[in-house]
Specification:
Number of domains: 1
Shape: globular
Largest sheet: 5 strands, mixed
Order of helices and strands: EHEEHEHHHEHEHHEH
CATH architecture: 2-Layer Sandwich
Radius of gyration: 21 Å
Helix content: 40-55%
CATH superfamily: Transposase IS200-like
Strand order of the largest sheet: 2-3-1-4-7
Distance between the termini: 28 Å
Structural class: alpha+beta
Oligomer: single chain
CATH class: Alpha Beta
């Protein structure tokens, strides 16, 4: 089945999910992996600025929410370029750390627009509390993988370090006689408040976020008690191997067209999506026939041209 065309809008927020190859546990709680992810996100955000609402890694998938920083076409394109650079850096560094080769992620990002503030807030809370929902830890604060929780709950921005390998190799690498520390740089990952929380002072925003997290934690704890289950906890998680995978196969679910808090909002988006698809497929067909001046819908991408020798 063909992949869904991208439709990026300057006033929209996007929720993304991406799983590892064979659902392997490459992102299990590991301080080295956590720092790799933070450094890669900071580097990608510095080169291609985007509004990051959250960036959270469960044991075998990542979830993020982001939006363009302005309606500038270049900033809109940064949504794609950020993902490309971030995924490439994470794959290379984690492969180096785990002494493996090949792709890290199984597919392209699964991207869905959150069409209203309520649905965006719901997706934020879902992503941050996902390790609790999956029974990996009892509280989000116990999760030692990469998480947005600390910054959103306290405002503390962590600094990550990385080796600038390009500059290091240009200087001669090991043969240069210079230490790697001379090529070590620092970055931070800056998270933005979701639009419905922008008007709140920082301390009230953080208190609201912590309260919402506690409510979800209590709900998940009550559900585990009813079912007679216990959270794995840090000790058991430490024994998990990065190359392990779930014992049971997760059923495939259909990707939602969007995230909406009401049926009316979802139906309204569906109508606009159908209109976009009609215009996109028409323009795409004309483009592949050689009509170079055909106009594509704003926020879409032209199909690649293949040259035959």
């Amino acid at each position: 089945m063909a992949k869904r065309p991208r439709w990026l809008k300057p006033d929209a927020a996007y929720c993304e999910t991406q799983r590892t190859v064979d659902r392997q546990f490459f992102f299990k709680p590991d301080e080295t992996v956590r720092k790799i992810i933070g450094a890669c996100a900071g580097r990608a955000q510095r080169k291609y600025p985007v509004k990051l609402y959250w960036l959270d890694f469960n044991i075998n998938h990542k979830q993020d929410g982001k939006a363009p920083v302005s309606d500038n076409p270049e900033h809109l394109l940064n949504l794609v370029k950020f993902d490309q650079l971030f995924n490439s850096l994470v794959a290379r560094e984690i492969n180096r750390h785990l002494d493996r080769e090949g792709p890290l992620f199984s597919t392209r990002n699964r991207t869905d627009e959150a069409v209203d503030d309520a649905s965006l807030e719901q997706q934020l809370m879902y992503a941050v509390t996902n390790p609790v929902k999956d029974g990996l830890v009892d509280r989000v604060s116990h999760w030692k993988g990469f998480s947005s929780y600390q910054q959103l709950a306290t405002g503390k921005v962590e600094t990550f370090t990385y080796l600038d390998r390009t500059a290091w190799h240009r200087a001669g690498g090991e043969g240069s006689g210079k230490s790697r520390e001379a090529f070590t740089k620092t970055v931070t990952v800056e998270l933005s408040p979701i639009p419905s929380w922008e008007h709140l002072p920082a301390h009230k925003r953080q208190a609201l976020f912590r309260r919402r997290v506690r409510e979800i934690e209590q709900s998940c704890r009550a559900e585990r008690d009813r079912e007679g289950r216990r959270a794995m906890g840090p000790t058991k998680l430490a024994k998990v191997d990065h190359r392990d995978r779930p014992m049971t196969r997760k059923p495939r679910t259909r990707q939602p067209l969007c995230h909406a808090s009401s049926v009316e909002a979802a139906n309204e988006y569906k109508e606009s999506w159908r209109s976009f698809l009609d215009r996109f497929w028409y323009a795409s067909g004309m483009w592949l026939k050689g009509v170079r001046d055909v106009e594509f819908p704003p926020g879409s991408f032209r199909p690649p041209l293949m040259q035959l020798c």
